[in-house]
């Protein structure tokens, strides 16, 4: 298989379906950059990798490799050490300093097996090395191992990000609860205290008023908790959408009645300007959450 300089491998010419591969149950198109100044070496490596259906691109020097890595999403880079213009060591160092490419695993392709050369490569950020002449089984095993490790790191990073997002949502949820439940609970406490301590002295109408305030505060607290739970579900992607034909005038008025006492305490005047025959096909709970 002749490998033209600096081109992406043609899947049909290489003899494999374009990047289709299943690894540990995940369908993933793995994209590998092969960097070597010798076309023969690129050809040997490409012929080995095509057995697993990897998608490949090629570069003949370090500078071109850096340019390609910045513009294409590679999962792994196989990098020769001894190259003109920019050797593999410098290319690896630059890859690891670039935030866009630092997480791409690099495997050195080298004929240098002395301890000093190997340690230098690891020190610059390489994850492994394969010696020339290439052993097909060894090359495939090392490539597969580091692709699996990369996937595992990505899964771990995604899980960490999701956990941080959930923690932030939890903190915000508790903060809102502590703040917004204070008013209805204050009303519940003050109203019930009046009934407990002064029940015998209160007029029937006063008792009725206090019971009404307690009832209203209870409904406000209940609806606030419902809103908060809906909001929490929406933040974690678990909210259910059940649309139906609803009267916007009715739903606005219902929520205004619930908010009226809180609005009065804050000197806020709420008016309903929705026309009586205004209908919408929407989720009633979601609309109520938006209004409240």
Can you walk me through this structure?
The chain contains ten helices and nine strands. With 292 residues, it is of the alpha/beta class. The chain folds into two domains: 11-159, Rossmann fold, CATH 3.40.50; 182-291. Strands 4-3-5-6-7 form a five-stranded parallel sheet, with helices on both faces. A two-stranded antiparallel ribbon has the order 1-2. Helix 4 links the parallel strand 5 and strand 6. It is elongated.
What secondary-structure arrangement, pairings included, does this model have?
Blueprint: H1 11-14, E1 22-23, E2 26-27, E3 31-35, H2 39-49, E4 55-59, H3 62-71, E5 76-80, H4 88-97, E6 106-110, H5 115-123, E7 128-131, H6 136-180, H7 182-198, H8 204-235, E8 244-247, H9 248-265, E9 279-282, H10 284-291
Parallel strand pairs: 3-4, 3-5, 5-6, 6-7
Antiparallel strand pairs: 1-2, 8-9
Helix pairs in contact: 3-4, 6-8, 7-8
Overall average residue pLDDT: 82
Biggest pleated sheet: 5 strands, parallel
Task: Please provide the ordered H/E string of secondary-structure elements.
Answer: HEEEHEHEHEHEHHHEHEH
Could you name the CATH class of the largest domain? Alpha Beta
* The CATH fourth-level homologous superfamily of the largest domain: Response regulator
- Flag low-confidence runs: 1-25
Shape: elongated
Looking across the biggest beta sheet, what order are the strands in?
Answer: 4-3-5-6-7
| DSSP E strands, number | 9
Helix content: 55-70%
């Amino acid at each position: 298989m002749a490998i033209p300089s600096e081109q992406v491998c043609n899947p049909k010419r290489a003899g494999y379906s374009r990047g289709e591969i299943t690894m540990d149950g995940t369908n993933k198109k793995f994209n590998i950059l092969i960097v070597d100044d010798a076309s023969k070496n690129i050809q040997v490596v490409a012929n080995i990798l095509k057995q697993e259906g990897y998608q490949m691109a090629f570069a003949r020097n370090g500078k071109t490799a850096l340019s390609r890595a910045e513009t294409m999403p590679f999962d792994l880079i196989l990098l020769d050490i001894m190259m003109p213009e920019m050797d593999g060591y410098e290319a690896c160092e630059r890859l690891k300093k670039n935030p866009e490419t630092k997480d791409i695993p690099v495997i050195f392709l080298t004929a240098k097996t002395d301890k000093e050369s190997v340690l230098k490569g690891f020190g610059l950020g390489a994850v492994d090395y394969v010696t020339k002449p290439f052993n097909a089984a060894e090359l495939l095993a090392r490539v597969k191992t580091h692709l699996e490790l990369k996937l595992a790191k990505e899964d771990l990073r995604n899980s960490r990000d999701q956990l941080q997002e959930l923690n932030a949502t939890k903190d915000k949820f508790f903060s809102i609860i502590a703040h917004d439940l204070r008013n209805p609970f204050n009303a519940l406490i003050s109203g019930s205290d009046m009934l407990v301590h002064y029940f015998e002295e209160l007029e029937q109408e006063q008792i009725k008023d206090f019971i009404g305030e307690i009832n209203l505060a209870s409904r406000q607290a209940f609806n606030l908790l419902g809103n908060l739970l809906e909001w929490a579900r929406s933040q974690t992607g678990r909210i259910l959408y059940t649309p139906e034909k609803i009267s916007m005038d009715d739903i606005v008025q219902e929520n205004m009645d619930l908010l009226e006492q809180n609005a009065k305490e804050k000197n806020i005047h709420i008016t309903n300007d929705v026309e009586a025959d205004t209908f919408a096909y929407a989720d009633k709970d979601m609309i109520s959450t938006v209004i409240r």
